[in-house]
Amino acid sequence: MKFLANENVAGDAVAALRGKGHDVLWIRTDSPGYDDRTILARAVEENRILITFDKDFGELAFHSHLPANCGIILFRISAPSSSVIANAVVAAIEAHSDWCGHFSVVEENRIRMRKL
Q1: Which fold is adopted by the domain 2-115?
Q2: pLDDT by residue (tens digit) across 40-57?
Q3: CB 28 within 8 A of CB 76
């Protein structure tokens, strides 16, 4: 799958997803300082699923009327280290294949998905 990782996604998570064969661009290295609207527009333009820890994307997504080829995964988890977060991100991503067209919230013990 193709993903766009927001700046707040841990580098270990980006590396782990790439290690699993996913195409992941990372805002922190590719386009640091982009605002949320620009990041979301890029995800749509490049048919990538946005991965973020930023709650602001929920409201932005529903006001933007995103196309079905886009998706947003909001992680609401905390962990003692970036490697633990990386494992949680990879496990969640690999648990589903239907991220496109959804705003998804990944929490410690569940994943909620809502159509965009």
Answers
A1: Rossmann fold (3.40.50)
A2: 989 989 999 999 999 888
A3: no
